[in-house]
Amino acid sequence: MSVASETQSQALSGVVAAPLHFLMGALNAPMVFIQKRFGIGGMGAVFLAPNMLIFSIFVLVPVAINFAYSFSGGMAIFFGERHFVGFEQYQTLLTCADYTQPATCREDAFWQSIHNTVFFVVVQVTVLVLVALVTALVLNREMRSRGFWRAVFFFPVLLSPVVVGLIWKWILQRDGLLNAILVEYGLERTLWLAERNWAMFWAIFVSVWAHLGFYALILLAGLQAIPRDLYEAAMMDGTRAFRTFWRITLPLLWPNLLVVITLVLIRAVQIFDEAYVLTGGGPGTSTLFITQYIYETGFAHVLRNLGLASAASMLMGLVLVGLTLLQLMASSRRNREGRA
Amino acid sequence: MNAISTFLLRRRGGKGWHWTDVLSYLWLAIGLFLMFGPIVWLALSSFKTPANLVEFPPTMLPLDARLANVQGYDKPLPLYRVKQDDGTERVLAQVRRVGLMAQMVDPANQGELVRVPIDKRSPEREVKLATGNYTEPLQQFNFLRYFQNSIFVTVMATIITLIVNSMAAFALSKYEFKGRTAVLGIILATLMVPLSVIVVPLYLVVNEMRLFDTLWGVILPTVATPTGVFLLRQYMLTIPDELIDAARMDKASEWQIYWRIVLPLAAPALAVLAIFSIMWRWNDFLWPLIVLSRKEQYTLQVGLNAFSGELNVQWHYVLAMTVLSILPVAAIFLFLQRYITSGIASTGLK
């Protein structure tokens, strides 16, 4: 780190810490008292306590409750007023005459959302990973104002999903910019968000737009870690660019790429915010995704069905745990190879 | 001439243009257009008047009627370009419109009112920023309140996150105690448990704690971030234990060691976490959407969504407020880009 950035970081930590300084000093007396009681060895648990307390209340307990609720029925909110129904909620969700036809399922919206999500995940992950890879390769080249170009691709990552959804809703609306450009070239206006296939297309496009910079950055870090002399050696041997990519770049980038693929997968399965603001799940249920289904079943409908929503989120959680294991395997492999 | 073109087209490598260079710059150009275009368009649109906004095809720049002060009239009058019968054009100010006829007056030379059919006149317009789009929603609607709520949530959540996460990270990196591995395992396991999976029971817990529809109900569930604990712990592991032992020799209390020695040394990691926390909390949507039900409690994101979901979307307000909501994030990005990119590259968190 350069001297400039060190002063910057000190200034930053000063801004963050200054209001806390007083608080931290004031806390010393009670903490000394506690230390006298528990001894130095016991302080580990004391320091851990606040975080674990909040963590238990708002993460661990909810996971346990979710499990319990998915086996209960009724409209009541409180657990005491609900009755045990065994696997009934799961049965409702999973009963289907033909799994490829959501309309034949008992809970057809759930299956429609699964179909939509699977389609979304397959297309979005493929496109996003490819586009991020190309962007990282381009940004890794020697060129002027690299920082600027990196910022161009990265900036949308910082925008909130609501803002992303609103910006594109504004561009895609009936009298929006895109239709104006089309009319200018003599083409017809299209109601982009009111036609099933286009709505899905834009849901995918917008989510790629919003997250591209993030993954390109991770891949860029991976590319920069590849030793330069490998490329110099390849150049001396007169290796063609494509072969260099195939034989040097891709194998050495593969661990990073694997991490990116699993991260994109995990996040694509949970797609909600941008799509919800952009299309609201419509037209009809053509862009209804699983998270939105859970949200609407549990909260938005007048007859909130918490049991069904819990069961659906348990199923989604199962899928995500599987994907997370995949991710951990990928990153542990990356670490192993990084050390080797 | 040739020298100039070689200078302009010279690249760092020297040896002229390779086809991959052409493709790269093409990719960058398309990227610039697609990634920045929408944001520029948003910013331009946010300064348009409602009438200018609904125009089709839309104008590039925000345009509004040119006004002129005419003697004898209290308010400035809009100017129009009028086609006269003899084919010449002149600029007149419109006093009022009656049916299909407009009563107009020459702004420079007030004489009698001229009656002009409205299809013979076209408005004179100039680039003008409709700043009312920004001031009105803050005054008439609850947007100022939404901003305050968002700032409160972001600041409180970030401070608490930094304190409790760094305490936990300190414990997990510098103490030996029973169950340490178990705790670390649990934190790692939940690193990826998404909010969307536990949103139903979380709602019940928050409800039970009487935090429903309060800003604390938005803040508290988010502060014990496993990612933050993990990031800080990894950093604190690099702080030498000898420093801590030396401080103990000097009779420093454990708490003093934590905030006088370990925290300052972990400042770079804390800065990264602070930036991320600010971005996360400022942009949160699903959880505030569920917890907050009264309009006075809305955060900016929930307010924006509600405002744009209304039957009659007042786009001129929505766009202006969207731009305002981006500004803090843009400022952070401009000044702290280095931390954000290095943070992402080293941890893969977001």
From TrEMBL, chain B:
Matching InterPro entries: MetI-like (IPR000515), MetI-like_sf (IPR035906)
Main location: membrane
Localization annotation: Cell membrane
Pfam families referenced in this protein's UniProt entry, alphabetically: BPD_transp_1
CDD domains for the chain: TM_PBP2
This protein's UniProt keywords: Cell membrane, Membrane, Transmembrane, Transmembrane helix, Transport
Family from the record: Belongs to the binding-protein-dependent transport system permease family.
Name of the protein in question: Carbohydrate ABC transporter permease
